[in-house]
Amino acid sequence: MAENNEGAVSTALDAMVGDLLGAFLDCLAEGENPGVVVSVEDAAATRYEAVFTDDGEEACLEAARAYVASHAKGIPAEKLGRIERAAVAYVGCVEMDGDYEDAILVTFHERGMACAYSAYVLVRGIGEGDGLEWADPEPAGEEPALIA
């Protein structure tokens, strides 16, 4: 993998986040809420996901961030080496022109980036199968780094 310069998103991170968003869209089309999902990947492209659903959204988000931090050196039981990239995604809403719209919210980070970044994907028609509509991802700003 090439060096990550000044926060540029690598193709590996972009692919991981794209796969995570795709899985969320599949769940939402079926009317399922996937919870707060952590996706992590090591330098060998070994990927692992953890799902948090047992508490409220804020508690699950906190647990997801703590999970990434506490497993930064890897997850030997899952044959995952040192975490190189991570993303945390969940379903929420964003304010658009005074109204709240359903959205997938995702924070993503990779070693070498000074901070994490967040984005959202607006969705409509949750539970409508092929009737689910979504917009292109939009940036939502900088976040604290997920991996030290």
If you had to describe this structure to a student in words, what would you say it looks like?
The protein is an alpha+beta fold and 148 residues long. The chain has one domain (11-143). Helices cover 22% and strands 38% of the residues. The protein is built from two helices and seven strands. Strands 1, 2, 3, 4, 5, 6 and 7 form a seven-stranded antiparallel sheet that branches. Strand 5 (116-124) and strand 6 form a beta hairpin. The radius of gyration is 15 Å and the shape is globular.
Brief sketch in words of this structure:
This protein is of the alpha+beta class. The protein has helices at 11-29, 57-70; strands at 36-42, 47-52, 83-96, 99-110, 116-124, 133-134, 138-143.
> What is the approximate shape?
globular
Largest sheet: 7 strands, antiparallel
Approximate strand percentage = 35-45%
Order of helices and strands: HEEHEEEEE
Secondary-structure map:
Blueprint: H1 11-29, E1 36-42, E2 47-52, H2 57-70, E3 83-96, E4 99-110, E5 116-124, E6 133-134, E7 138-143
Antiparallel strand pairs: 1-2, 1-3, 3-4, 4-5, 5-6, 5-7
Labels describing this entry:
disordered N terminus; alpha+beta; single chain; about 150 residues; 2 helices; 7-stranded antiparallel sheet
